[in-house]
Design brief:
Length: 451
């Protein structure tokens, strides 16, 4: 039997070994190229939530539209997991950006009215400091010596940029997916500096299914021998692991009903006998998505940024625990400095607690549709901030109940200016990627909220 899918991987390894960098021919995703960006260099250390420190760091950013004299029309646009700051084309980089149609004169992010800034997150690989950057402490690339990050760390770095640009208060903080997490985090961390919050297909805390899906992506990547515990920068990158990680990610980004319509049960070549390599159209589609992306993003950035998504929890308890870790470090206590991960699996199997299973008989309290009190308390800093929370019924990664949970928590926290929109399956079957594709509904609601 022929295995063209394995041949392709082996041949790419050979090409990479010879020093060349094969480029995917074209791609379905927006141009996540770094192109030409502006860079803000911060020389003041950034203390991170889990004990690490970046002694200095860069934030790559791009902007569109004029900033007014009062600097009161600035919108900070947060990206999804793997996007660069290139949300829209610029004179310096005319390639279309990942939100090209959403930004421009008369567009939902209207450049006739607003000055829009988009950054590459710290931990990323498109110009901001991340695991592929050089550690000023030893002159070598950080690799997996890079510290664990949180969404809040990324947001603090963005606000250092705003400080550097003399921007005191945002007109709005806008983001989708991971950007939707950051948008909320910005409002919680800096309530007096954020005029409005928009969170599209985001959440208030990561739920176990989404952590599970990111876990599997990280595991296939880390099991690629070329990953080499993160030290691959002088060798062959773990392109096979990245390809598989992207295939799993793509399963979470779209929806079954979309694929039913788009591919059904059709095979790429029904005239040939079944193959173990990609055969059904859905398989060749996933294979293509993985092929295109496997050299487009730094594998270590994927690990760090995706872990930061897992750690996301705006609940009050987590915020207090983080504050006390940071305070302990300020006092010089070791408790605040958890730099080295020594987590091992427990020796005895985990014993499930009856109440955690949700069995009717064991349930202590009746299930409530109210959001957890901890999240309501955690979102209290946003009580006076007008908020747009948008979700998509076909999204399996950030399911619509999570945006309902955020909207309801904000209302229970006392916010009387919450707009909640849920796009039904009749409106979009694009699942999580709806925010990239649906200009009419996503863009339309965004425009309405901002004006
Ligand atoms: C979690 C977070 O924080 S953010 C996550 C956000 N999501 C992502 O990052 C995923 C990004 N998604 C993309 O980049 C998508 O390509 C989008 C949204 C920009 C565009 O989606 P669509 O227009 O529907 O295109 P899609 O990517 O589904 O498919 C088009 C590509 O697949 C190819 N294709 C389609 N069907 C098949 C098939 N059966 N077999 C092989 N290839 C196929 C097309 O030829 C095309 O290839 P090309 O891009 O190389 O020309």
């Amino acid at each position: 039997m022929a295995f063209p899918c394995l041949d392709a991987i082996e041949s790419r390894s050979e090409t990479l070994k010879a020093g060349a960098r094969p480029r995917p021919s074209s791609g379905p995703e927006p141009s996540y190229t770094s192109g030409v960006t502006l860079t803000y260099q911060c020389h003041k250390p950034l203390e991170l939530d889990w004990g690490g420190v970046l002694p200095e760091f860069n934030v790559a950013y791009e902007s569109w539209g004029e900033m007014n004299a009062q600097k009161s029309n600035v919108i900070l646009l947060h990206t999804g997991l793997s996007a660069s700051s290139h949300a829209h084309s610029t004179p310096a980089n005319p390639q279309p950006g990942w939100w090209e149609r959403f930004i421009g004169p008369g567009a939902p992010l209207d450049t006739d009215k607003y000055h829009i800034i988009c950054t590459n997150v710290i931990g990323g690989c498109y110009g901001s400091t991340g695991p592929g950057s050089v550690d000023p402490g030893n002159g070598e690339k950080y690799a997996t010596r890079f510290p664990i990050l949180t969404m809040q760390d990324m947001v603090r770095a963005q606000f250092r940029l705003l400080d550097g640009l003399g921007i005191d208060k945002l007109y709005a903080s806008v983001g989708s997916s991971m950007g939707g997490m950051q948008s909320l985090a910005a409002g919680v961390l800096f309530p007096s500096r954020v005029g409005r919050v928009v969170s599209i297909s985001g959440c208030g805390r990561s739920h176990p299914y989404s952590i599970a899906m990111r876990h599997t992506q990280r595991q296939v990547l880390m099991m690629d021998p070329h990953w080499n515990r993160g030290f691959y920068y002088d060798g062959i990158p773990p392109h096979a692991g990245m390809k598989l990680a992207r295939e799993i990610a793509t399963v979470t980004y779209r929806s079954g009903p979309e694929w039913e319509q788009r591919f059904g049960r059709r095979r790429a070549d029904p005239g040939k006998p079944p193959a173990l390599c990609p055969d059904f159209l859905i398989e060749t589609y996933l294979d293509h998505a993985g092929e295109k992306w496997c050299l487009e993003y730094d594998p270590n950035s994927l690990l760090y940024v995706s872990k930061a998504m897992d750690l996301f929890d705006l609940g009050r308890e987590n915020q207090l625990a983080t504050q006390s870790r940071r305070a302990a470090r300020g006092n010089g206590s070791q408790a605040g400095s958890l730099l080295h991960c020594s987590l091992t699996l427990p020796k005895t199997p985990y014993e499930e607690q009856p109440e955690s299973r949700g069995d009717d008989a064991a349930r202590i309290e009746p299930v409530s549709s109210r959001p957890p009190a901890d999240l309501v308390l955690g979102l209290a800093p946003l009580r006076d901030t007008p908020a747009l929370v948008m979700g998509v019924a076909s999204d399996i990664l950030f399911p619509a109940w999570q945006q309902r949970e955020v909207a309801e928590s904000l209302r229970l926290a006392g916010n009387r200016n919450v707009t909640h929109v849920e796009l039904s399956e009749q409106m979009s079957l694009f699942g999580h990627d709806t925010f990239l594709l649906d200009l009419k509904h996503v863009g339309g609601n965004l425009r309405m909220f901002l004006t």
